Amino acid sequence: MNLVNLTINGKxxxxxxxxxxxxxxxxxxxxxxSLCNMKIxxxxxxxxxxxxxxxxxxxxxxxxxACGTMVKEGMVVNTNSPEAxxxxxxxxxxxxxxxxxxxxxCDKCGTCELQKLASEMNIREIRFKGEKSTFKPDTSSxxxxxxxxxxxxxxxxxxxxxxxxxVGALSGLNRGFxxxxxxxxxxxxVHTDCVFCGQCVSVCPTDALIEKDNSKEAWAALQxxxxxxxxxxxxxxxxxxxxxxxxxxGTVTTGKLISALKQLGFDYVFDTNFGxxxxxxxxxxxxxxxxxxxxxxxxxxxxxxxxxxxxxxxFPDLIPHLSTCRSPQGMFSSIARYYFADKxxxxxxxxxxxxxxMPCIAKKYEISREQLSKDGLQDTDISLSVREIARMIREAxxxxxxxxxxxxxxxxxNSTGAADIFGVTGGVLEAALxxxxxxxxxxxxxxxxxxxxxxxxxxxxxxxxxxxxxxEVKVAAASSLGNARILAExxxxxxxxxxxxxxxxxxxxxxxxxxxxxGGQPFHHGDFEKxxxxxxxxxxxxxxxxxxxxxxxEDILTLYANFLGKRGGHEAHEYLHTDFTDKSNPYMNx
Length: 590
Prior knowledge:
By secondary structure, the chain is of the alpha/beta class. Helices cover 34% and strands 14% of the residues.
């Protein structure tokens, strides 16, 4: 490794060649403020934007952007020279001069990076006066509000949308004072190929991109008394909401969260993991059926709504490869509305309200899909992000960190370890393999052979070959839509050339790292160590559970015996499966 020697604020530093000044400074604990820079190298991408100029430093006799300038041998860097301090402060003041002054009522109040920079730079007045950019917020989509008036042109959203996700819904438009980050022909988001993954929301430093807040609807549901309110908690929520209440990332808060939700007024608190176990029962059955009868392979998992929409808009020819299984949210809500309400509560389907708490804002879009409703009644009424439910808990004066432990209600609260790992990339695939192995061999995997570690980790594309009853099954897991595109284009090329596809089963998660990095999670501001801690916690939950295979969930087996019939049968298809449509024409999108 070639090392480069330089000096930063009088401190000697040796770093590998190709290191940027911003990263070299971190080696000696010197902080350089920035807005546009992201640590996406940790998820396999290079951030070379360098657009905001907040990180200017002096190198020699020149001012240079620290996030876009490589170190050189003998370089002398000063991060707090009078010139650098003055330049950075001017940049932030100029940004503030064209920014709405509504901090107290802004959704990002307290988490806004521009607000934090202004405070750290001791900016107490806005010296620059003049014309302001004003735009009407785009509220056309169910998951995302885009308010260009609050955009600081850091281009983070553009980087995520184009480089990491390869969706291409956002891009820089116009020049000079009229420059914006917008959509093609400045269309509303709902009329673009946006898949609502929320990664743009996750990285936006201000309130220019934010999830649509459905907490008012949730409060209204809790305050009425005619209908019982059922809530489900997704796997990744239990290891991330802790961060909103000052706990370490990856702290498992399942029992405390259940207590908080009951105190908020939810009548029944269930686990989306029950739906995840159901998903494995159907998905593994579907995979084995395709594998043994010459069905369409590879089979793509269909748990991630952003990936499903990505396939429908950009790869509609590959729709037959999608599993017909609903997501765990979709399966759980269907069972809660048409089984639990009827058999346990003696209620009609429209006499209960079903709320989901998800790490993903694309779930707000998913619940509106026509295929996930019956007779005009949505299976899921309201979907809340982790940030939304955290705000509701704080609003009620509840301290999550000090809540007592409670248990999920029964019977839709019992789950296996296989369901917990749904929240991390590779987890759905691993859980499906645990059950598919038994479906094919009629034997159980030994406890010490249940972990398919080859598909774990944050690598963009992970692949493995599993020997099941003498047959080699090749599988892959893709993390981020950019990596999903690679696999989808490879499959498309194989099919066009008449070649046998490389894999038999492929899991795809739109968000880097899976649901632990979902668009509705607590903001990690580029610190992917937090995301990794969340994922590690889910694997720990799985490894510590007595039962780690979905087909061993007794309550699931009872549900099949009393309501669904056989796996993949008529009733199972009515309540647990769905279909997909070609949405490649954006004007045909919802």
